[in-house]
Amino acid sequence: MAEQPGNKEFTHFDADGNAHMVDVGKKNETERVATASGRITLSQEAYDLVKSGSIVKGDVLGIARVAGIMAAKKVDALIPLCHPLLISKITVDFEYHDVEMQIEIIATVGITGKTGVEMEALTAVSVAALTIYDMCKAVDKGMEIGSICLEKKTGGKSGTYIRN
């Protein structure tokens, strides 16, 4: 594996710099949970329509929740070198932020396994945000998706991470 400054390693590269899937065969199964979040900023009109449930296409956040869950289950088909996982838990929740006209998306993914679920949580947030955009674009094409990040992860060799 390529050694990086501070003794950190990029695990998806071999000693020659070639991409490879990490061998998790000898790793111990542990309970692993990851939470990610992101936000979508809407116009006042679109924000009010989503919040009141009045978008013509239907239940925006309900559909976005299902899209996020479905996306988390398909990460290995979307992102090269990710392992297929038997996920045991996925939640996608939303919080309204009226002053900023933003909807915050929070996804939590859990597994008992040999590799983490950070990519699944981040993908769930991303696809939920894109689904909100898709369902609201007739009203507001200027929506902005951003601030997608890992908030917390537990389990595995590297232990617990909590975003500052």
Walk me through the topology:
Elements: E1 2-3, E2 9-10, E3 30-41, H1 44-52, H2 60-72, H3 75-78, E4 89-97, E5 102-113, H4 118-136, E6 144-154, E7 161-162
Antiparallel strand pairs: 1-2, 3-5, 3-6, 4-5, 6-7
Q: Give the class from helix and strand content and strand pairing.
A: alpha+beta
Tell me which CATH architecture applies here.
Answer: 2-Layer Sandwich
Shape: elongated
Biggest sheet strand line-up: 4-5-3-6-7
Number of helices: 4
Write out the CATH superfamily name: Molybdopterin cofactor biosynthesis C (MoaC) domain
Largest sheet: 5 strands, antiparallel
Mean pLDDT equals 92
Domains (count): 1
Short description:
The chain has 164 residues and is of the alpha+beta class. Helices cover 27% and strands 30% of the residues.
Summary tags:
two-stranded antiparallel ribbon; 7 strands; five-stranded antiparallel sheet; single chain; Alpha-Beta Plaits; alpha+beta; disordered N terminus; 164 residues; 30% strand
Walkthrough of the structure:
The protein is 27% helix and 30% strand. The strands form two sheets. The chain has a five-stranded antiparallel beta sheet with strand order 4-5-3-6-7, with helices on one face. It has a single domain (28-162), classed as Alpha-Beta Plaits, CATH 3.30.70. The chain has helices at residues 44-52, 60-72, 75-78, 118-136, and strands spanning 2-3, 9-10, 30-41, 89-97, 102-113, 144-154, 161-162. It is an alpha+beta fold and 164 residues long. α2 runs antiparallel to α4 (118-136). The chain is elongated. The protein is built from four helices and seven strands.
